Amino acid sequence: MRKAPGKNRAASVKAKHHSNLTFRMNVLFFAIFIIFSMLIFRLGYMQIVKGEEYVRFLESTEEVPVNTSVPRGRMYDRYGRILVDNHPENAITYTKMQTTTTEEMLDIAEKLAQLIEQPINRVTLRDKQDFWILKNHDAAYAKVTKAEESKIKKQENITTSQINAQIDKLVRERITNEELLQLSDADLEVLAIYREMASGYSLSPQIIKSENVSADEFARVSERLTEFPGVNTTTDWKRVKLSSLSILGRTTVPTKGIPKEKLNYYLARDYSRNDRVGESYIEAQYEDLLQGQKAVVKNITNRKGQVVDTVTTYEGEPGKDLVLTLDSELTAETEKIVEEELLNIKARSGSKLSDRAFLVMMDPNTGDILSMVGKKIEKDSETGKNVVVDYSYGNFTTAYEAGSAVKAATLLTGYNLGAITTRTVLGDEPITLLGTRPKKSIFNPYGYIQMDGLRALEQSSNVFMFKTALLINKTPYSYGMPLRLKDDTFQKMRNSYAQFGLGVKTGIDLPNEFSGVQGPSGPTYGGKLLDLAIGQYDTYTPLQLAQYISTVANGGYRIQPHVVKEVRQPSKDGQELGQLVTEIGPTILNQIDNSSDEINYVKQGLRRVYTGANGTAKRQFANAPYTAAGKTGTAEVIYYGDLRENWGTYTLTYTHVGFAPYENPEIAYAVVIPWASTNPSQPFSANSDIARKALDKYYELKEKYKTEKVTDSDVTQPILPAVTKDKIGEDEQQ
Q1: Which of 328, 354, 404, 521 is catalytic?
Q2: How far apart are CA 549 and CA 500, in angstroms?
Q3: pTM of the model
Q4: Is residue 349 annotated as a catalytic residue, yes or no?
């Protein structure tokens, strides 16, 4: 029996519909499965793979490190006497957060002005203009018309910040004096506080007031810190020098902060912009040790950037202490000697150009600098009178012709290069080269005297040195001879001098050392070669002269001079120096190319300078209660000092180098008095007088220390008071 066609069609449609519905449900369930799988995978990825990273991110956005200051390391002399200290002062600081607004800072400044007295002497015209704009915003910007603003905005390639800067400039230019006079004394005090707050950088504590903070002010602010977000009461450490010695260096002050030229260098080392940093000499050279490790405080903030808690994560550590090689008492006493002699020189006729004098005393065996004195006469800008200032850094930053003081190096150069031997005898006589005036020794203007190296040193024979230089050039002297130098003669002599430290940097642990000036050289500079041989051509620093004579004294070893003896941990009790961290010992830079016999022969000649019948320093040293040896020097030079109008004037520079005791040297010294006189016929002995007085003082103090049991022990050493009454604050050092 055949089925009805309509019923079959209806059943087919229903089955097809059911099949489509099932398929769609399966697709939906599959999509839901995929979505949930992705969510579960993502959640697992975030928790397992990225979990720690997100935790660190959360911490970094909620815990913000803030640096706080610690005391810089102190400086002591070799016997534990304090030279540079830190003076604690109450301070009120402000730390700005990233979310802090101008209005919030102004509100805090107004409240603080009710609690403290803030000096207004540092407020500038620009500060007043900016503050007036802040207090009178609408009136200020009404000074720039819409047309002017539109013209500025139409400029090509101009940024939004540049537009705002030009508009602000116009506003400031149009603020009148009458409008600025509207700022009351109370306004100016608020401004003085606000400018300190605004000058800081986010997360860097900025000192609002640290000078003359009274106990009442400190207490009032401390009691209300919760009302002033970012304000804190703390201790600031000011740098105080207990010696006027300039090589100790100086630091910047927080108001100045890091010098611009070194900003990136220090910021990369986690400094804050307003940190104190060493700006010169020892303070700068040893900045990494002196600065210490700052405490790190984390301000825990909420999502709005508001501080809700403060946690110290690192207590910090004061800077390391430095024990210097200097003997501060010897330095103070030799400063008096040099200053007195310099003033005596200045009072003589022919001393118009004289304005400075130097003395270096060092241990020839270790390189320890025991005393480094430099004095300079300057005009007081207010009174117009002469004043003597410290110029100790001139010992290694300025150079002068040394005259006959270098003749020991010339003899040893002649021996080293095979031009002469210790048995060589040469005639001292006026020598005449083709086309030149005669050159001669001061003591023998006309005659002919046979002499060996010992007598040449004792009487300071120029001619012996001239003839030695000619033999180095392989052109023995004959009357009227032409002189053309070998290409390498100048360099041979300079290379030999360099072995002693002459004409090269000594390597001292201080910045800005100067190596001196070398004059032109070449085959046609024969006369200048002879000048070089007697110290009247190239220039040398006083410190180079001290290193040179130390090299002779110790048997031929060039020792690197240094001013830091030890690095120590900070003192725990203020009574004894801290634990020894590093001891800085001798560093041998090179050994000269001379035999012991040659060196000892020259040392005999230097001894005769002090004791020989014709010795040039016999008057000062023949009766000394100790044995010593040395060499005087006089250089005829052309003036090139501070008085430019006198450049080119003929003048004389006096020097003296020496060591003691002769048998086993423990002290070497160099004296330099540049441009001391324009009168060559006037007797002069200040160079040797300074040397004798300084050496007397050295031995006097040596006996005193032995009696009082003052030692430079590297184990336990008591902290002793400063020798002088000098007390120079960091503001006075700027």
Answers
A1: 404
A2: 8
A3: 0.83
A4: no
